[in-house]
Amino acid sequence: MNRKQVAAITLMLWLTIVLVFMLLVQQFDLEIFFFLTLIGILVIAELIKHHYVQPGYMRYLDYLIGAGIVVFGIIFVHKVMEIFVE
């Protein structure tokens, strides 16, 4: 198996573990799930990164990470505004 396949399997396993754990404790929160998904993608992207050559799929993974960080920032600002309004 190459790195891309291992990364996809690892991410799927990570998301399955997170989802099962959240369902077991009966506290499914989409924002926490998104945050843990983003952490998993960041860790996996760092582990499969080549130091001297960048494959084409890494560029798209960087776009995905950038979009995730933007959405995380929006969620963060929304939560902070909820705290200040109350």
Structure, explained:
With 86 residues, the protein is mainly alpha-helical. It has one domain (3-85). 83% of the residues lie in helices and 0% in strands. Helix 1 (3-24) runs antiparallel to helix 2 (30-48). The longest helix has 30 residues, at 56-85. The protein is flat, with a radius of gyration of 16 Å. It starts with a helix and ends with a helix. The model has no long low-confidence stretch (mean pLDDT 85).
In short:
By secondary structure, the chain is mainly α. It has three helices and no strands.
Q: What class would the helix/strand composition place it in?
A: mainly alpha
Radius of gyration, rounded? 16 Å
What helical percentage do the residues reach? over 70%
Euclidean distance between termini CA atoms: 52 Å
Topology, number of strands: 0
Tally of separate domains? 1
Number of helical segments with 4 or more residues: 3
- Determine the mean pLDDT: 85
- Low-confidence parts, pLDDT < 50 over ≥5 residues? none
Gross morphology? flat
Hey, roughly how much beta strand do the residues contain?
A: under 5%
Order of helix and strand elements from N to C terminus = HHH
Major β-sheet annotation = none
Features:
86 residues; mainly alpha; 3 helices; 83% helix
Secondary-structure topology with pairs:
Blueprint: H1 3-24, H2 30-48, H3 56-85
Helix pairs in contact: 1-2, 2-3
